[in-house]
Write a structure and sequence with these properties.
- By secondary structure, this protein is an alpha/beta fold.
- A hairpin with a 2-residue loop joins strand 3 and strand 4.
- The chain is 27% helix and 39% strand.
- The protein has two domains: 55 residues, 2,3-Dihydroxybiphenyl 1,2-Dioxygenase, domain 1, CATH 3.10.180.10; 76 residues, 2,3-Dihydroxybiphenyl 1,2-Dioxygenase, domain 1 (Roll), CATH 3.10.180.
- It contains three helices and eight strands; from the N terminus they run βαββββαβββα.
Amino acid sequence: MKMRALNHVNLVVSDVDEAARYYQETFGMELAFREGDFVFLSCGTSDLALVKGQPLIHRRFHFGFRVDTREEVDAWLARLRERGAEIVHGPQDYGGYYTFSTLDPDSYAIEIYFESGPRGRAGDVTAMLADS
């Protein structure tokens, strides 16, 4: 048996409105559904769910947005710096993998990256983890 795709990630956030606004204004995500303190934001074929609660942050937990070019990584970096976002990693060039990470309002790490291959996983991710 095999899953078709990853559909969504659910984040527990301290303030649903603030988190939703951040992801909508910063990354252009669209509101797909809301019921009380539960929100689904749309991003292409994947969703980000936000629910009110006490965030539990592990230092290696993060999620990433893949872009099409290195120039887009740099453009996102400039945009986030203009917004006063803290850059917690990078920009770092691992050859076929170019990346940086920032934090959302609850300190979840968000990676913005370009990957030259179709969806590589081994060497680049191992090198990135060694840096943290």
